[in-house]
Write the structure tokens for this entry.
Amino acid sequence: MKISKSYKTVILTGLFMPMTLFILGVYNGIMQTIYRAGVIHQSSVGGINYYQGLTMHGVINAIVLTTFFAVIFGHVTVSHYLKREPPKLTYQVSMLLMIIGTMMDLVAMLTGKAQALYTFYAPLKDSAAFYIGTALLIVGSWIAFFGWVKIWLEWRKENPAKKMPLAILGTFVNFSMWFVSSLPVAYETLVILTPWSLGWTTSINIPLTRMLFWMFGHPLVYFWLLPAYIAYYTILPNVAGGKLYSGNAGRLAFLLFLILSTPVGVHHQFSEPVFTQGTKLWVSVLTYGVALPSFMTAFTVGASLEYAGRKRGAKGLLGWMVKLPYFQQDNYLFGYFICGLILFIFGGVSGIVNASYALNQMVHNTGWVPGHFHMTVAGPVLLVILGMSLYIYTSVSGKTLKFKSLAVIVPYLWMFGVALLSHGLMAGGLMGEPRRTNLGLSYTNPDSPLFNKHWVATTTITMIGGMLMGTAALIYFIVFFTTALSKATAPPQIILPESEELHEEKPIPLLLNMKPWLIASIILTMFTYVPALISVFKYSKPVKNQFQTESPVNEEK
Amino acid sequence: MALTGMLLSIFLFAILYNVFSRKIDVPTCVPYTGTFKKPHIRKVDIQNYEVYAVAHMWAYDPDEITIPKGSTIALYLTSADVVHGYNIVLKGVNLMAVPGGVSKTIITFNDPGVYRVVCHEYCGAGHQYMMGKIIVTDKR
């Protein structure tokens, strides 16, 4: 599809800007593995202290890059399938708000005014600019969604007989869930934290802020993940040379995410006061429910890949695995997708351990947790972001991909890096190694009375993994930026690979209508969070606490 | 689909079995009052202790607890300032110390030794130095 100049500018900016910031995110990630391994026993390097760097690593990689990509991928998907552009006002205002929000966050983090990590747990205080910036970034992403809804309604009027394309359903499910679940965090940042940070209010209910954060924080991970799922269902079967095994299975998986992703946030809080064991157990069970659509996806995508392998002439039970197009320069997307999927097998299984109620006691807040989520968010999520960013940037700008041979090896190198990093973190985590801690100053410093020799080996493996990931990222940056800064060779266009469905399936009315699922989602969320909210007020009290990270002096007294 | 169902049922069974039959449970909560902010240890009888622990930037109070082996501790934990963690390493005891709330758990120490308590929630610049000890002695 042809593309207007302003739409093109927004899409390219939305890829280029966060990718530039990602350099800073990656740098701070590598630095953490070096601090933790005890190679350096310092609190800061190059003017950025460990926790400030960790805040940047989390905010840039997990909120900025992911949200920008979800919006840009949404623009391209919706426009590709509906063959039209959203209203100019919506995509421009959306991008503007997201950029302003990101810049506010960036300044707050670089000047050290926001270093309470990306979860910004009160009563550690960040500057109000950080809270408002984060809220603007989120609100900006909503506005893009409103534009898509408008052109979708137009399209449906013109094409009453056609069913909603699977990729559009996935995108709409994702942003509906995102809209519902980011209301609590918008309330937390704008109504509770901003006035508190500015000194207009003095007392604050900490358990309430934590509950509101995780009500958003868990759906957030699905918001990262669903664009990758959309790519796995609608693009991967095509680039593998096959067809999608079942479209209806894909629809059901997306709709299950819609109802189950919001009410499970409390599973991040099994170790906390304020929630009863009943609430915790109920949420643990619901979390198994949300594992279901992921199991289904593994099966459907696996079956689609097997079909592709057999079509390429594979024989025997597992021969199809060998026949897939692993290292092809003109089909680099496949490598990014398959490496993400392989990591996600382990990411998913370790996630089930986290969700498992009593088992969580062994691993909560230890290195196990970042070990797990680097195999999800730095696995399928990031690899799809990297692969699709190259694809979208080249097609929308009309430029040709440079250094194709390098672009092909990036995902494999990255995958090995993540595997080592996560192995080190998880092994250490099982021995109690805490996450988010500058271990080099104490636990991995032989001169400290806190020294623990068991954590030296695990943090060293983590560091080697981090170095491999850093190398892969460096190669990727060379490919991305030389491509982005080259001259256009073809007319710009919006295009995506489309996968056919293997079987002609009967349309199931329930899978074509989002409304009942949206209602079920709200009911289930109420069913979980009304008792949780009652517990918060029954078991906790607001406190007059406000602290800067450097000092144990209460600013409210 | 059937396989998935079976797998999920096994998981569910494992959780419920551990909770209800083997009594392995997560921390619970009690209503918060200001009295929890006074750290102290109370010996209930020869085997049972109540520990009221308060985490603050960047130490625990009490930071060392000495008990004979075979003792059971009812641990009540809160925080005086920001959010802290309380992980008894290799013991599978994992609590959050949240200002304005109290976590409670019951732990039995059968093996003598020094158990390290590590703060595993970021709590400011001194976070990496925040550690406590539970010393379980050999005598009854």
